[in-house]
Amino acid sequence: MSRAWKLGADVDTDQLVPGATMKFGLDVIARHVLEAVRPDFAGGVRRGDVIVAGPNFGIGSSREQAASALVHLGVAAVVAPSYGGLYFRNAFNVGLLLLTCPQAGSIDDGEAIAFDARAGTVTRASGERLRCAPIPGFLLDMVEAGGLLAQLKANPKTRTERT
Amino acid sequence: MAASTAEPQTLAQKLVARAAGRDRVRPGEIVTCRVDLAMFHDSSGPRRLKPMLAELGARIRDKDRVVLVIDHFVPEADDEARRIVRIAREWAAEQALPHVYDGEGICHVVVPRHGHIRPGMFCVGGDSHSPTGGAFGAYMFGIGATEMLGVVITGEIWLQVPRTIFMQWNRRLADGVVAKDMMLAMIGRFGMNGGRYQAVEFCGDAVAALSMAERMTLCNMSAELGAQAGLVAPDAVTRDWLSRHGAPDVDIEPWRGDEGAAGERHEFDASTLAPQVALPHSPANVRAVGELDPVRIDVAYVGACTGAKLDDLRAAARVLAGRRVAPGVQLLVAPASVADRDEADRDGSLRQLVDAGATLLPTTCGACAGYGQAIAEGSTVISSTARNFKGRMGSASARVYLGSPYTVAASALRGRIADAREVLS
Known about the structure:
The complex is a heterodimer of chains A (163) and B (425).
Chain A: E1 2-6, H1 13-16, H2 26-29, H3 41-44, E2 50-52, H4 65-72, E3 77-80, H5 85-93, E4 97-100, E5 112-116, E6 121-123, E7 129-131, H6 137-145, H7 148-154
Parallel strand pairs in A: 1-2, 2-3, 3-4
Antiparallel strand pairs in A: 1-5, 5-6, 6-7
Chain B: H1 11-20, E1 30-34, E2 37-41, H2 46-56, E3 66-70, H3 79-95, E4 100-102, H4 107-113, E5 122-125, E6 139-142, H5 145-154, E7 156-160, E8 164-170, H6 179-190, E9 199-203, H7 205-208, H8 212-220, E10 229-231, H9 236-243, E11 264-269, E12 276-278, E13 286-288, E14 299-303, H10 304-307, H11 310-320, E15 330-334, H12 338-346, H13 349-355, E16 359-360, E17 380-383, E18 399-402, H14 405-414, H15 420-424
Parallel strand pairs in B: 2-3, 2-5, 3-4, 5-6, 8-9, 8-11, 9-10, 14-15, 14-17, 15-16, 17-18
Antiparallel strand pairs in B: 1-7, 12-13
């Protein structure tokens, strides 16, 4: 089970990773993730936790640290009704699973939930099952491999083999 | 299938089809595209690519298709910035990259100014404002550093073929109302994810009448509209501009959508549009300037790829010529590129801004992204940039309003957010 950190709508990349921290490495950046909107997050998040957010998660900049900092902190997945398109690509490229779940808003802060990326489901503490939009197989493969860099390392031709 | 019975294609579909080596593509299908040009800067590029390439033991597949622009961490404000810029310069030399622009200005302006982006091309950029290239009839979008790694190694990228959203602006803009106002109006109406990561094509008489710099502003802020790409079909304006910027004789004929191509269409009357302002802390929090309660300002900022090109500098100068900014207001001008600055210098616009009390800043991203010199804590700012997220300009307590360069200049003059049309008339 994963513990949910509930956030609002329109969480942008500057909230995820403030511009002033961009000159540093991930170890420093990670300490400042979401500090303006959820100051208890960076210090309190545990490996395997999930972020549950409102619509348009990750709008804004192309800085992929806004996704890789979450991986660095051990976030297992993000569950939200919609994402910034650029963030969506970045997340899978750095090995962060995004589940597109129209009913994400019904999940409570701190709730223990389970998810199954291949089945496209999120299961609430009550047992209620929420449907997620299907994810193309090549993206699931990428995220399971740990991202594009890991995939390229394993097989430089991976990018063109797409199903 | 005979061509005559084939389904009409939008400009976006034609651009993607060409890059995918196909006659035609359908919205929603996933294709692999050959990348004609990959652009990145000091923040997204060398400092991230170099270690990953080393880790893979891989090389850049085609250096001629790569452009590096050093624009984010210059001038270097501290040791970290110096380290990042040094990596970029050393790596560029070590790799013998043929296209490097160092300290010439912001990538989205510098790269087209050197004729790198032409109608029909398929391009990616390591920056979210990369859709700016769509102003030239190229399909261009932003990607992150890891995906850029894949592009420079393989020369390819996957894409879900976008649907097209047509933003049709009829009639003509009034004097003192510009592309920035059009974009704020659209973002205010449709929201920051209103583009749903599809392609937005700007069209209609008001768009056809815009200069290239203004078309770049439209496509640039497609990012804030949540589109993957913003497009303007190339025409004589495009061809003439490119012929003066290192790309003579481009073929524009193939690069327009077919009559009757499917897409969502929204129509606007440009002639009735008033100057628009986005309130803190979202570019979608938009009102017409006349609907605002009085807002006193401390800082007026003309800057960024969005709002400090030659046309933007001229607009601000037109408002401020022969006048002085209000007491207590700091007017900061950071031209988008050295070329824009020099042209504004030659035509007298820069002198008019300085005489009005402007402080000139380096031709880099600067305060727009909170890099380098930041805006003071607690300030109220009116800015010609693209984003006013909380903390974006480097100060968590600053309140940033977005407007056109006309609005920024008029506000500097009055000491409060003001309608430039009152000054111009």
